[in-house]
Write a structure and sequence with these properties.
Elements (H helix, E strand, L loop, with lengths): L1 E2 L4 E2 L2 H10 L1 E4 L5 H15 L10 E3 L13 E5 L1 H4 L7 H14 L3 E11 L8 E4 L14 E7 L11 E2 L13 E2 L15 E2 L9 E2 L7 E4 L5 E3 L8 E10 H9 L12 H9 L8
Antiparallel strand pairs: 1-2, 3-13, 4-5, 5-6, 6-15, 7-14, 8-13, 8-15, 9-12, 9-14, 10-11
């Protein structure tokens, strides 16, 4: 693999591994100097210093309305919308290069997200899920590539990503249910988080990565992460790519990945609970 100003070239073996396992770990995707340029922007969001975000600034481990000091897993959705200086930054460009090698030249950026697990927060858990469970049913093409950049070393101790290899090849999406914080059918009025159950046959693999490295996963890959038991933060910058046609479909129905979107989540969840299959690779 090679890295240039805008490209990150994968080997045939890496492409094959992604298709087989539903994930990759890529080293040294972003340099220390490039990280240093991104960090001040990241910190403004994670410290709650960007106004007007509504539910796009929340705790992914708990309900909306929780006081900021009580956030365990700080979540800032769509930072490039609230700060356009992020558009076309070096990580976005390299992630686009990776996505196009994995799912085709029509891969386009769908959404971005900043995440940070506070130190010594056992509750900073990202529940087991498939990304597709959060998205509207009926999309014409579910191919996707999600790249997660480590701004801190991610380890099992501070809650690094965990995956179930090969789960992306299951014929149907697993049934998702509301998190424990959601008690009503209109769960998105209370909290954003969905979760799936792991089966006895599921093999869980942890993906520790160094600062500047990334994990890459498919939208059907079952994944999650445990809490942070260390004295330091675990910060992650996520960008997701889907096909151009799928992004256009999402926007046509008013879906932008914002937690402020006016989407009929009750209908969406009913389809998920019924095990509605999605097309895709």
């Amino acid at each position: 693999m090679t890295r240039s100003e805008t490209e990150f070239t994968l080997s045939p073996a890496q492409i094959s591994a992604y298709q087989r396992d539903g994930y990759l770990v890529l080293e040294d995707v972003v340099t220390e100097a490039e990280l240093a340029a991104l960090e001040p922007i990241f910190q403004r969001f994670i410290e709650g210093r960007v106004a007007g975000m509504g539910r796009d600034f929340c705790d992914m481990s708990g309900p909306y309305g929780r006081a900021f000091e009580d956030f365990n897993l700080v979540n800032a959705v769509l930072p490039r919308v609230y700060d356009p200086s992020l558009v076309d930054n070096v990580f976005e460009q390299r992630a686009t290069s990776i996505a196009r090698q994995l799912i085709g030249d029509d891969a386009t950026l769908d959404y971005d997200q900043f995440l940070a697990k506070r130190p010594r927060r056992a509750g900073a858990v990202f529940a087991w899920h498939q990304d597709l469970g959060y998205w509207p049913t009926g999309t014409p093409d579910t191919r996707t590539v999600t790249c997660s950049l480590a701004l801190d070393d991610a380890t099992p101790a501070n809650g690094c990503l965990q995956v179930v290899p090969g789960s992306h090849r299951e014929p149907a999406l697993r049934p998702h249910r509301p998190s424990a914080w959601s008690t009503a059918p209109e769960l998105r009025e209370e909290a954003h988080t969905l979760t799936v159950e792991l089966g006895a046959e599921d093999r869980v693999v942890s993906l520790p990565v160094k600062r500047g490295c990334i994990t890459v996963h498919d939208e059907r890959t079952v994944h999650g992460s445990p809490g942070n038991g260390t004295d330091g933060w675990r910060r992650t910058y996520v960008v997701a790519h889907r096909s151009r046609a799928t992004v256009a479909y999402e926007r046509s129905i008013g879906f932008t990945h914002s937690h402020n979107d006016a989407i009929s989540w009750t209908t969406h969840l009913q389809a998920l609970e019924a095990g509605s299959p999605h097309s895709g690779s």
